[in-house]
Each structure stands twice: as structure tokens, then as C-alpha cells.
């Protein structure tokens, strides 16, 4: 049963990661011959989840094992390896999430397979895989190609493909055996740590003014706070500022922080790394202030101001006060 | 419990720069770019130096790249690394992460290693794949996006960052590979005497022969990789751009905020 595309589902606490539905859509749009697209759900006690996923017009394989109850790279590499060896797909699609980029390259290394990660779009053409990626802080687009007679491991950036919707009727769900050598599972799950309760809940704010590296000094946060106050907003931050501990981790907007959908989002001195954009791109109105006109933040912003935020904000505050 | 620590460093063009595509479309124009150590790798180095200071051992920094990487290696020596190794793979672009990782893995095999550290992602190509590939190729247990490392007698306990602020804590035996996240620690500055000393330290160079290869292209790859083309990004959307003198931009921004009803009266 060789060929086709194997999609690896991701789930946590009984919920499917949104990126899994995006992968199904990306795989389905490639219209591969023969076995088409199969989604594999690894885990323990995930039959119900698998049944649910079969509603998204994709055949589902369920691979259950007690050692898959919590994700560990070692157990997953073994389990995925077994299924890749038995099904020999052309592509193995994995989301470019923290779990996905833990798994994908390790799987490729262990099985000596080609791997391409963090892809925005992929296409299969005459025996080659062509992938579109963004490099150099999102400022350059690149297309790369891989030719191989072995399965190619690919990770897709979350948010790059519209998700698959539910279809009419459900597709098949097949249980597949998994064998895992417990002695080879060297990485042991210890516990999950949940984020602390926030001082301010960013995700319920209507107006967020976020600061990035462009504010240069911690003292300049006062300026951002004053501006936020003037427009009834709260202050968020991009990752570099919370790493520097200028603001608590709970104020971080982005993939590893909060996903927000305020009515107004003002990005002050934020270049717009993909991790940040993933957390704010769905805001109602996005204004961005940055000195670099090529900064990727301007691709998601509705209105962009090419200015030093430390000069523009005082001038805006003056304007607002002048009423 | 002295630890042999190997830190993989990558030199990248300063990502705050603007980039132009070379005429053949296969790389960016590299003349006049300034290069720096990859952001996440700075945290990997700092983590290694702290582990050495706490538990004893040695830190070897390893890079793959042309001669221009030497100042980066010297800076790492000044920040506490004991030895610097440059794998003399001179491709200035080195787009194929699989090839890079296979060469790095071959080089790491020649070094004693209880713990291999890399940054979580490179600022230039953003694959987040080198660490995982090296682990898979060397058969090492690994953990990614690590924000905390604790070394116990036989093993390690590390916290791995997931989306939305969750952290997964895992235990793993040594030898192991960890990819270190931004913000895992506060990287130190190199003290001046250490900078002076590092300027005189030798940098070990590894060529293909040292790894038993006739040339770098002899490294076996299960695929053929190619760059089709680089191009300026085609934006899905783009902001309406406001430029010009600050007072005028400020007027427009204030007016916009009023029009949309965001200004409190």
C-alpha cells in the first residue's frame, strides 16, 4: 500500500490542534494518486478523537499505545517510523509546531529521510517536491526542491493553509498496530506546567498596544503605556521584551504567548516575526509603526507608519491632547 | 560529573538588514552583509557555560561555515568556551539543512559529548531542524524548545516550551541533544581580558578528510536538493503606508484613531 500522503495529527488534552486541519487541506489539495491522504492519530485512548477527525473527509488510522499517552520524541519517532515503513508514503506531513519540529527532523535523521521544514506551500511535480518558504526574517521568499525515492518529511507553518472543513458523511477509521520498544523510549514525560494567571487578560482586551525591540529601552515602555491609556488599551509585547523581562510573560502576544483578536492592535517597533504574527493577525484593525518599510509586520497591518516609534508616539499624544 | 558539552553555533546575516536577491536568483547578495551569531545559539552557549560552571567539564563550540565565522568562535571562547572547532564547509549560503546536519553530526562523532546544545532555530533560514536531525542521525535522545535544564546524577530534567505558554517537563539520559529557546537565560558579555586571550587561541579546523570524506559532496544524502529561486516576498496583503515628517504622520494617526472611535473624550 505504498504512495500517498501520511498526515500526522497533533492533539493535546483531547483536542485536535488547529494545524492538523490545515495539514489535511494542504494534503488533499495535492490530489495524489493511489492511496491519497491518510491521517494518523497517535495516542492512548484517542479512538473518539479519530472518529471525529474522519468527519473532515480524510481516512484516519488510529495508532494506540500506552507509551503514546503523552508526547515524547522517542516514542513518537518509533511509532511513526513503523507506519512510514509499512505504508511507504511519498510525503509525511507534520505541523511546524513545537511538537512538530521536535518530531519531524528527528524522524528524518533516524530513518535517513529528506526533510523540509516550516513550509508555506508545497507542490508535487514530476517526482519532485517544491516547497515555498520565507527566510531572513520573512524578508525573502524562496522555493526549494527535493527529489527522492524515499518518503519526504515536511512540516507546514501553522496558519499558512486555510483549514479543512467537515464534509458530508465520514470516512474510514482503521486501527493499526504499533510496536514500541520501551527500552528505546529514553525521554520520559514528567509533567505539564500551565501558564500562571495573568495580571491582565490580553485575550479579552478590545485595544492592545504592543511594544517590540524598536522601543530600545525599558524606560520607553512608559511612553507606550501612556499611549495605550489614551486610547483605552492595554500593553502587550513581542517575545524579545518578555525575554528581557521588561514585561511579564503573560503580556506576550504570539505563538508561544497569547493569541489575541482585539478591535484595534497597534504594533510599536515590532518587525513581525512569524511567531508574533500568528498571535495577532486576526485583529480588527492593525496599525504598525516601524522604521523599516520592508518589515513583515506591514504585510498584516492595515495602515503602516514608517517612523521611529519613540518620535511618533509623543507627537501623536500631543495631537490627541490638543483634541 | 564533569560534562563534555558541545554547542553548535551558526553565523547568520544580521536579520534586521534589508536583503536583495542575487542576479541568478539562487542566493541573496552577500557583499557587504554584516554577520552575527544566531540569536538562539547565544542562549545555547550561555546554558552550556553555566552547566560547566556548576558541574565542571568542558565546552567545545562547533560551527559549519567559511573563515568569516572565526570572530564568532573567538567571541564564544571569550564568553567561556574552552575550544573552538570550525568545520570548513565554505558554501556561503548552505541552504540544505539535511546536508549541514549530516556534516555536523559527523563532526560531533569525533568529539566527546555528554550533551549537545543548539539554538532552537536559525534567524536566517528558520528551519528549526538542525538539532533534531543531528539527534536522529546520532541516535541521541533529544528535547526541543528548552527553557530550563537541570542536571541530575544520571540524567537531565528539562522544560520544553509549547504553544500558548504551556511547558512540558521531560527527563532524559545522557548523552543527549537539546535545542535551546530564546530567553532561556541571560547571555553574558565577554570580559575584556577574555577577549584579549581569545584573540590568541587557536581554532581547530576540520576538513572533509578528517571525517573520512574525499570532499563535502561525498557525504551520502538520501535525496537531491536544489534552490529553485529566491524572490522578494509577494505579500498577501499590504498596509496602506504613511511616510513623511513625524508631525504629519502623527496627525494622520490621531485622525484615524478618532475616526474609528478609539479616542476617549
How do the helices and strands line up, and which of them pair or pack?
The complex is a heterodimer of chains A (323) and B (265).
Chain A (H helix, E strand, L loop, with lengths): L4 E4 L2 E2 L2 E2 L1 H12 L7 E7 L3 H7 L5 E6 L8 H15 L3 E5 L4 H12 L3 E5 L1 E5 L2 E8 L4 E8 L4 E5 L16 E3 L12 E6 L13 E5 L9 H10 L3 E4 L1 H5 L20 E5 L5 H4 L7 E6 L6 H4 L2 E4 L2 H14 L1
Parallel strand pairs in A: 1-4, 1-6, 4-5, 5-12, 6-11, 7-11, 14-15, 14-16, 16-17, 17-18
Antiparallel strand pairs in A: 2-3, 8-9, 9-10
Helix pairs in contact in A: 3-4, 5-9
Chain B lengths: L2 E7 L1 E3 L21 E3 L1 H17 L1 E8 L5 H9 L4 E5 L9 H13 L5 E5 L10 H9 L3 E10 L3 E7 L5 E7 L2 E5 L11 H9 L3 E3 L17 E8 L8 E3 L3 H14 L6
Parallel strand pairs in B: 1-4, 1-6, 4-5, 5-11, 6-10, 7-10
Antiparallel strand pairs in B: 2-3, 7-8, 8-9
* Oligomeric state, counting identical vs distinct chains: heterodimer
CATH architectural arrangement of the largest domain in chain A: 3-Layer(aba) Sandwich
Which value, in Å, is the CA radius of gyration of chain A? 22 Å
Tally the structural domains of chain B. 1
Order of helices and strands of chain B: EEEHEHEHEHEEEEHEEEH
State the name of the first-level CATH class of chain B: Alpha Beta
Distance between the termini of chain B: 65 Å
Amino acid at each position: 500500500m505504498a504512495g500517498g500522503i501520511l498526515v500526522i495529527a497533533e492533539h493535546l488534552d483531547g483536542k485536535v490542534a488547529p494545524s492538523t486541519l490545515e495539514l489535511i487541506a494542504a494534503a488533499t489539495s495535492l490530489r495524489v494518486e493511489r492511496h491519497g491522504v491518510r491521517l494518523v492519530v497517535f495516542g492512548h485512548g484517542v479512538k473518539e478523537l479519530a472518529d471525529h477527525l474522519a468527519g473532515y473527509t480524510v481516512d484516519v488510522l488510529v495508532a494506540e499505545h500506552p507509551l503514546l499517552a503523552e508526547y515524547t520524541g522517542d516514542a513518537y519517532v518509533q511509532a511513526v517510523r513503523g507506519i512510514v515503513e509499512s505504508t511507504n508514503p511519498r510525503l509525511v506531513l507534520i505541523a511546524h509546531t513545537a511538537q512538530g519540529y521536535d518530531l519531524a527532523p528527528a524522524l528524518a535523521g533516524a530513518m535517513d529521510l529528506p526533510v523540509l521544514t516550516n513550509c508555506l506551500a508545497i507542490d508535487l511535480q514530476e517526482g519532485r517536491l517544491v516547497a515555498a518558504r520565507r527566510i531572513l526574517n520573512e524578508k525573502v521568499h524562496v522555493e526549494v526542491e527535493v527529489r527522492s525515492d524515499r518518503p519526504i518529511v515536511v512540516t507546514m507553518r501553522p496558519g499558512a493553509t486555510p483549514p479543512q472543513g467537515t464534509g458530508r458523511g465520514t470516512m474510514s477509521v482503521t486501527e493499526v498496530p504499533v510496536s514500541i520498544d520501551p527500552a528505546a523510549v529514553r525521554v520520559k514525560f514528567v509533567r505539564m506546567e500551565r501558564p500562571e494567571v495573568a495580571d491582565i487578560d490580553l485575550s479579552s482586551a478590545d485595544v492592545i498596544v504592543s511594544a517590540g525591540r524598536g522601543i530600545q529601552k525599558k524606560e520607553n515602555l512608559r511612553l507606550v503605556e501612556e499611549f495605550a491609556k489614551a486610547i483605552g488599551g492595554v500593553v502587550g509585547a513581542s517575545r524579545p521584551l518578555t525575554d528581557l523581562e521588561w514585561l511579564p510573560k503573560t503580556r506576550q502576544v504570539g505563538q508561544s504567548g497569547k493569541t489575541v483578536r482585539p478591535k484595534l492592535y497597534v504594533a510599536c517597533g515590532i518587525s513581525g516575526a512569524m511567531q508574533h504574527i500568528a498571535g495577532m493577525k486576526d485583529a480588527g484593525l492593525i496599525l504598525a509603526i516601524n522604521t523599516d518599510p520592508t518589515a513583515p509586520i506591514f504585510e498584516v497591518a492595515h495602515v503602516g507608519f514608517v517612523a521611529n516609534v519613540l518620535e511618533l508616539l509623543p507627537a501623536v499624544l500631543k495631537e490627541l491632547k490638543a483634541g | 560529573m564533569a560534562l563534555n558539552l558541545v554547542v553548535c553555533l551558526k553565523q547568520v546575516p544580521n536579520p534586521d538588514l534589508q536583503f536583495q536577491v542575487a542576479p541568478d536568483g539562487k542566493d541573496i547578495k552577500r557583499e557587504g552583509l554584516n554577520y552575527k551569531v544566531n540569536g538562539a545559539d547565544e542562549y545555547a552557549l550561555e546554558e552550556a557555560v553555566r552547566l560547566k560552571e556548576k558541574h565542571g567539564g568542558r565546552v567545545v563550540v562547533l560551527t559549519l561555515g567559511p573563515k568569516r565565522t572565526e570572530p564568532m568562535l573567538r567571541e564564544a571562547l571569550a564568553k567561556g568556551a574552552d575550544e573552538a572547532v570550525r568545520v570548513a564547509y565554505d558554501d556561503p549560503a548552505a541552504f540544505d539543512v539535511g546536508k549541514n546536519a549530516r556534516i555536523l553530526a559527523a563532526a560531533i562523532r569525533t568529539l566527546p559529548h555528554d550533551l549537545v546544545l543548539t539554538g532552537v532555530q536559525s534567524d536566517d533560514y528558520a528551519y528549526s531542524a538542525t538539532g533534531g536531525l543531528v539527534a536522529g542521525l546520532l541516535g541521541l535522545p533529544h528535547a526541543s524548545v528548552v527553557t530550563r535544564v537541570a542536571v541530575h546524577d544520571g540524567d537531565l530534567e528539562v522544560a520544553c516550551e509549547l504553544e500558548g505558554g504551556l511547558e512540558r517537563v521531560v527527563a532524559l539520559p545522557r548523552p543527549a541533544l537539546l535545542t535551546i529557546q530564546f530567553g532561556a537565560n541571560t547571555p553574558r558579555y565577554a570580559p575584556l581580558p577574555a577577549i584579549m586571550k581569545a584573540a590568541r587561541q587557536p581554532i581547530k579546523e576540520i576538513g572533509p578528510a578528517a571525517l573520512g570524506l574525499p570532499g563535502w559532496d561525498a557525504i551520502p544524502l538520501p535525496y537531491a536538493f536544489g534552490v529553485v529561486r529566491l524572490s522578494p516576498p509577494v505579500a498577501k496583503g499590504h498596509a496602506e503606508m504613511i511616510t513623511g515628517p513625524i508631525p504629519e504622520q502623527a496627525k494622520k494617526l490621531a485622525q484615524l484613531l478618532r475616526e474609528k472611535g478609539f479616542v476617549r473624550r
